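Q: Could you fold this chain for me?
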Amino acid sequence: MTTPARPLLVVEDLAVRFGAQAAVEGISFSLQAGETLGLVGESGSGKSASSLAILRLLPGNAEVTGSIRFGGEELLSLDPETMRRHRGREIAMIFQEPMTALNPVMPVGEQIAEAVRLHHPELSRKDVKEKVLGAMREVALPDPEGRYGHYPHQFSGGQRQRILIAMAVVNRPRLLIADEPTTALDVTVQAQILRLLRELREQHGLAMLFISHDLAVVSQIADRVAVMQRGRIVEEAATRELFHAPQHPYTRRLLAAAPTMHSDRDQPLAVG
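A: Sure. Below is the predicted structure, expressed as structure tokens.
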């Protein structure tokens, strides 16, 4: 009998509080290498707070309890310097809005190169640039050599998101956290980014925590889905199972609130 692989990420009883306000209330989930877990829920449900807790990027007034084990290592007990070494190398994040995540006065090639130098100070300038150009080609940015010195405003929204993805994967992390990575994009570009993320996951065996309020997007990329409401996970299931036979009333309301080509335009959508 084959022994099941140990999960890459195990979150147990995670809680996040800001003073008297609870943002996350005792959630638990796990993630295998090469697997994508979709974390869905409306704004304020605790999705982003959960992801920032994994990276230990919450503000100083946040109180975090529970356990976050990555590769068997307890992240919440690591000293700040060790945690910094994990960020960007072992665990990387793609943020929602590229124009706020990218430095507007720094060439994009140098921004990606900065992520490389932080974790690979031993590399020569030439080797760093080659690594950056390789990442830009991997995310299908046109003419990487010619556009290495261009600034964020010289790229389209979809291209800027590809730059963020290149920055996230250039050091070959084992876990990628994607926080609403397609929200600001039109439907066509959104489909391209989702296809790119699927390809990168397959090529490199990435585990991915994909955070979104959009169930249609999550259905295209996630192996499993966890639904959050008011800081708690109320349902978790394989993607097909959750969409075809949701068990929790909140999940059913979320699905009913999503318009389809068959929605009656004369009837109001369900309220989540």
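A (continued): The radius of gyration is 19 Å.
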